[in-house]
Design a protein that fits this description.
Length: about 400
Amino acid sequence: MKQEDLEFLDDATALIHLFDDRQAQYGAVNPPVVHASLFAFPDYETWKANITGERKRAFTYHRHGNPTVQLLEQKIAHLEGAADCIASSSGMSAISMVLIGLLEAGDHVLCINTVYGPVRGILGSIFKKFGVEVTYFGAEQSSDLSPLLRENTKLIFLESPSTGVFEIQDLRAVAKLAQNRGIWTAVDNTWATPLYQKPLALGLDISIHSGTKYISGHSDLMLGLVAGTATAMRKIRAVHGQLGASLSPDDAYLALRGLRTLPLRLKQHDASALKIARWLESHPAVVEVLHPGLESFEAHQLHRSQCSGDSGLFSFQLQARSESARAAFVNSLEFFSLGYSWGGYESLLSPLAFSYYGNDALRQDLGLTDHHFRVSIGLEAPDDLIQDLERALQIYMQTE
Ligand SMILES: Cc1ncc(COP(=O)(O)O)c(C=O)c1O
């Protein structure tokens, strides 16, 4: 396939065909899982040329690269329109690599206040210990962050949509502000996936995924992905080889398998979640539904201007009732498991406020109550899920 054809290739086709080399794998349509910590050199001269940098070999030691992992990285880099992509052992290891690769002692970070909790955790512990300062801002400030900039601001870290209350940040405005100021911009793009939101095309430097979610799609592996511009990725790749948060070839293989059905799965997550969100919106037990794809969602227009589709994670608030009623609601659901992760084939539900325990100020700021719930809509038939919710909501309203 010619380079100029690539740009016009639909993502679904690219995921299936791009970078696969069937001839090199005996015609097998699936890539081999290369179990190798070590890739030996054929002779002294090749070894020396690699050491001196005269002729670098693609694979020497798994921590620095593996063919199965590389195939996954190439496909994600293509989807993100990035110069390079690194796959790592979890979403948090991917985020840690970005922070370690780009920050130095004395730097200042601007971070969205609704960022995934453990990111706040490492910024407030490890990075604080090494002299990195952080200012948190609300999504409504993202259209103009200039009042918050300091001379030492080095990174603006976003998560858009955020994954509790789905705060939308103005990605184009943040990119424009940071350009020519020597400030890196990174966004956690897990909710939208590389199919629905292309941060680099909007001017940001780095897009990060917890591939544990939709990209794997089957709740059976941990995966982190960082894709970005050449300059950003040079710094991050240097850190990757040293930290050792490598992805196993087995997990890379499973992620590649997940990728092939990502476009189809997302279409279904999108349609089912919207159908259920609309149904919940009109239910008498429901106070509000927080789903950025709904026209009633405050930042819906901004969301649609930067994200072409929606995944299956959203939240809703029920009318206030007792804890026994909340327990009865959760326990009476047949098809929604109670659990932390999301983005898999199976539906999940979890009380939302507990994600923010330990940060009461933010919880209050966001107006989060014990009656907010987050759902990850899986691939079950949406009408079955609606019936399940309807029955559980009846029990909720009847329990004292
Ligand atoms: C939005 C978001 N980013 C990052 C992470 C971290 O990913 P992982 O659990 O793969 O380390 C998560 C995990 O739930 C998440 O929800």
